[in-house]
Amino acid sequence: MGIWFTEKQTENFGITMKINKTYVSEQTEFQKLDMVETEEFGNMLILDGMVMTTQKDEFVYHEMVAHVPLFTHPNPKNVLVVGGGDGGVIREVLKHPSVEKATLVEIDGKVIEYSKQYLPEIAGELENERVEVKVDDGFMHIATSENVYDVIMVDSTEPVGPAAKLFEKGFYEGISKALKEDGIFVAQTDNPWFTPELITNVFRDVSEIFPITRLYTANIPTYPSGLWTFTIGSKKHDPLEIPAERFHDIETKYWTPELHTAAFALPKFVGDLI
Ligand code: AG3
After folding, report:
1. ipTM of the complex as predicted
2. Which atom of ligand 1 sits closest to the CA of residue 223?
3. Nearest ligand 1 atom, CA 61
């Protein structure tokens, strides 16, 4: 039998996993944090009852958040990750040799602490010398940054609790200001089955600020519906017009140069949302 965990993804639908062990179950200053070992997906971080990452499928999300914008920019040097305290996006960012500095601004220091302890192959690069980790409010960090970043990645939770303001138009305006003149940003924008309006609204808001706005998807089995979306806002470089020679060799398990473009081919009902 064992113990089973269910994330209620909607009022009437959920995903259920067998739990072998609970390492941490704690109310932090910002959210409920659980770190568990699952039978099927390895160690897993849960925030406010929602699956954030698992050892088995984390590579999909982290590669797709990092490599799509980083290959779209011709020479990304200064990169910011908002949220993402597990360190997975940072690990992927560092695979790009042009990146001189990657700053992580995570509001909840406990996410960083427990990820280092229980998700070492995800969080390991947080100690890298090219990385600066700040335990701080990403919204405020953006509001006080001007013309500094080449690429910004928003690796947030869902638009409830501490991350709610990271889905508002004012935040995207701040991101635009924090980016350099040819900057690019990407945000995780949930799934088209249960949160279609979110995708529509974010896409509209971003396209009112950025001349190039694009939506792409990836398959993430432990997230609601498995079909995940990401929204890109770019001032100059189009992710669909990348010179082939820009793709340099990196070690990945999901991202490929072909997939970089294919990920923007949307199922009809998803394309109809934007
Ligand atoms: N951040 C996005 C997770 C959203 C999942 N939603 C859910 N389970 N309802 C992931 C953080 C990984 N670095």
Report:
1. 0.98
2. 8
3. 12
